[in-house]
């Protein structure tokens, strides 16, 4: 996983790029009709039910746009929210509030949707030893936000990107000429480049799991698109030799059954690629 310093750098890049994209050479709508000296106050109004995410991020955005804006927080990240709640008030320059408004809403609506869906998965897995993971199936350019939202919702982050963990999936294995060749080449590569990265290997059937288990130093086996019966067999075969992760079209309806097969993790791309934004609005008061 990436360090907190790297994560903060990603967040700062997202903010800078979003403001560049949205504001350009100026918010001419506000500049045209709102005096520079005008001050105002707005509230973040909740219009949906779910899990709140993005409050801490919104604070960063407001500070980036205008360090003099003041935030009065009433609700925090990970709080359960309902229609009619007020998450926070922001006060100060009216032009600054308007400049930040749409970016804050876009980010918080998506983050809250992801946190809400993650919370549903995490609640379903309660009482088991299985944890829910995200994937790299994120919106290009805002991965750090989406993975932050998963954490807020009670999930865990998988690798952040291609550079912080090795994951040998079906195409890597096929292009390399098989599982053993892919693993051996990877170990050689890591040694030659003095890299200390964990290795996850995907298995498509029980025979591939047996082949993976012939190799030492594998951090986790990805049990991909297995049915319940074969997942149980896979977990039994692997034992304590390495971690186990189920993936492949796992839904809210099937997650609990896969957890009961004994896997350590369930990963779901749907946490980030299949959500509907929670309805939030920023209204002048």
From TrEMBL:
Classification via InterPro entries: Aldolase_TIM, NadC, NadC/ModD, Nicotinate_pribotase-like_C, Quinolinate_PRibosylTase_N_sf, Quinolinate_PRibosylTrfase_C, Quinolinate_PRibosylTrfase_N
Catalytic class of the enzyme: transferase
One annotated Gene Ontology cellular component of this protein: cytoplasm
Binding site for substrate: 102, 135-137, 159, 169, 202, 224, 247-249, 268-270
Gene Ontology biological process terms from the UniProt entry: NAD+ biosynthetic process; quinolinate catabolic process
Pathway as given in its UniProt record: Cofactor biosynthesis; NAD(+) biosynthesis; nicotinate D-ribonucleotide from quinolinate: step 1/1
Domain Quinolinate phosphoribosyl transferase C-terminal span(s) in chain numbering: 114-283
Keywords (A to Z) from UniProt: Glycosyltransferase, Pyridine nucleotide biosynthesis, Transferase
Catalytic activity: nicotinate beta-D-ribonucleotide + CO2 + diphosphate = quinolinate + 5-phospho-alpha-D-ribose 1-diphosphate + 2 H(+)
Domain Quinolinate phosphoribosyl transferase N-terminal: 30-112
Protein EC: 2.4.2.19
GO terms for MF: nicotinate-nucleotide diphosphorylase (carboxylating) activity
Domain of life (superkingdom): Bacteria
Protein family (similarity comment): Belongs to the NadC/ModD family.
NCBIfam families xref list: nadC
Subunit field text: Hexamer formed by 3 homodimers.
Function: Involved in the catabolism of quinolinic acid (QA).
Name of the featured protein: Probable nicotinate-nucleotide pyrophosphorylase [carboxylating]
């Amino acid at each position: 996983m990436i360090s907190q310093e790297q994560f903060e750098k990603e967040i700062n890049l997202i903010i800078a790029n979003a403001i560049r994209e949205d504001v350009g050479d100026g918010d001419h709508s506000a500049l045209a009709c709102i005096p520079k000296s005008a001050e105002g106050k707005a509230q973040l109004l909740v219009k949906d039910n779910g899990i709140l995410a993005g409050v801490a991020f919104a604070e960063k955005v407001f500070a980036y746009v205008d360090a003099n804006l003041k935030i009065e927080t009433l609700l925090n990240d990970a709080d359960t929210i309902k229609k009619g709640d007020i998450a926070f008030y922001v006060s100060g320059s009216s032009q600054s509030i308007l400049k930040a408004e749409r970016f804050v809403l876009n980010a918080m609506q998506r983050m809250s949707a992801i946190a809400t869906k993650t919370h549903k998965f995490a609640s379903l897995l309660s009482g088991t030893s299985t944890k829910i993971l995200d994937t790299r199936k994120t919106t290009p350019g805002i991965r750090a936000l989406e993975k932050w939202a998963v954490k807020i919702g009670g999930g865990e982050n998988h690798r952040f990107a291609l550079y912080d963990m090795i994951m040998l999936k079906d195409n890597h294995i096929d292009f390399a000429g098989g599982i053993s060749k892919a693993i051996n080449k990877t170990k050689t590569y890591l040694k030659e480049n003095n890299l200390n990265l964990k290795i996850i290997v995907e298995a498509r059937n029980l025979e591939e799991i047996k082949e993976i288990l012939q190799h030492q130093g594998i951090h986790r086996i990805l049990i991909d698109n297995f049915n319940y019966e074969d997942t149980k067999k896979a977990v039994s075969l692997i034992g304590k030799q390495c971690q186990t992760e189920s993936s492949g079209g796992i839904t809210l309806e099937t997650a609990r059954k896969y957890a009961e097969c004994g896997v350590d993790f369930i990963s779901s791309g749907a946490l980030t690629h299949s959500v509907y934004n929670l309805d939030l609005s920023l209204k002048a008061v």
